[in-house]
Amino acid sequence: MEIKWIEDFVALAQYQSFSRAAEVRNVTQSGFSRRIQALEQWVGADLIDRSSYPPTLTPAGRLFREAADDILNRLFDTRAIIRTEQRMPGIGLQIAAGHTIALSFLPAWLNALTAQFRDVRARVIPTNVHDSILMLVNGNCELMFAYHHPDLPLHLDPTRYEYLTVGIDTFMPVCKPNQKSGPSLRLPGTVSRPLPLISYTETSYFGRCLALLLRRAKTQPALRPHYESDMAEVLKKMVLEGEGIAWLPKSSITNELKNGELVAAGGKEWNLEVELRVYRDASNRNEFIETLWRYLRSST
């Protein structure tokens, strides 16, 4: 049994909709349903009455809901206490960010921050989007960096969680170059020779970005799934080894594009622009955080 199954169940009990709960939990509806079924198998009873609309809790589900709320509250409270004890002394920032952002954007951003606030120390926790949101909501970080697209919003209460746009990135297809420095693989490919696709897991944020881009494409590309991971850095390594085509954030491959190690595998119609945002909990009235946020607002 996994904690995320319990969190899924609580979200379903709250929203009484599989589609809405799956959206809030940043997972596909089919994946969400499988996790609810896995939880029911672990419990040994049906927790959801699927014959009614909207779906409601069974008697076993109502009993489990009480325990689920208590379990999650205790776990997150304990985690908050432990993480608070692990915080750095003095003026420190706990930052949650996606792995790609932590590697490609934050080093330069932190250098600029240090030049402005010399005494500040930062701890960056690379994680996925879902866990970053949980860290922010549970008070386990002061700042959260995440990508944003209007069709793939993060589900955060805008009255409580403020954000600033600190950059624009381009999600683009790339591959190894051929001997003439052109793309060795070119979109859209052909049915007889589909392009080997190095892709993301469907529940990851970049996986959802790719799914959105392909749904919008005027011409459906011929792609053959070859390798899958939820980390862009893993996909980047596979592309550099000539294993296929992958969509990567431009910020993570700036040097490779400049040096000719990678080239665009298609025109701009295959790109997707995404915002890079920094979020904070507006209820956190820490004096340093307030000063930092005013500085960030004035400099963006």
Write the layout of secondary structure elements.
Blueprint: H1 3-15, H2 18-24, H3 29-43, E1 48-49, E2 56-57, H4 59-85, E3 92-97, H5 99-104, H6 106-116, E4 121-126, H7 129-137, E5 143-148, E6 161-175, E7 195-200, H8 205-216, E8 223-229, H9 232-240, E9 246-249, H10 254-259, E10 263-264, E11 272-281, H11 287-299
Helix pairs in contact: 1-2, 1-3, 1-4, 2-3
CATH topology of the largest domain: D-Maltodextrin-Binding Protein, domain 2
Q: What radius of gyration results from the CA coordinates? A: 22 Å
Report the uncertain regions: none
What would CATH call the architecture of the largest domain? Answer: 3-Layer(aba) Sandwich
The CA-CA distance between the termini, in Å, is 44 Å
Number of helices: 11
The domain tally reads: 3
The biggest sheet amounts to: 7 strands, mixed
Shape: flat
Provide structural commentary:
- Keywords: DNA-binding, Transcription, Transcription regulation.
- GO terms for molecular function: DNA-binding transcription factor activity; transcription cis-regulatory region binding.
- This is Chromosome initiation inhibitor.
- By secondary structure, the protein is of the alpha/beta class.
- The chain folds into 3 domains: 3-84, Arc Repressor Mutant, subunit A (Orthogonal Bundle); 87-166 and 276-299, Periplasmic binding protein-like II (D-Maltodextrin-Binding Protein, domain 2); 169-274, D-Maltodextrin-Binding Protein, domain 2 (3-Layer(aba) Sandwich).
- 43% of the residues lie in helices and 22% in strands.
- It has 11 helices and 11 strands.
- It has helices at residues 3-15, 18-24, 29-43, 59-85, 99-104, 106-116, 129-137, 205-216, 232-240, 254-259, 287-299; strands at 48-49, 56-57, 92-97, 121-126, 143-148, 161-175, 195-200, 223-229, 246-249, 263-264, 272-281.
- Helix 1 (3-15) crosses helix 3 and helix 2 crosses helix 3.
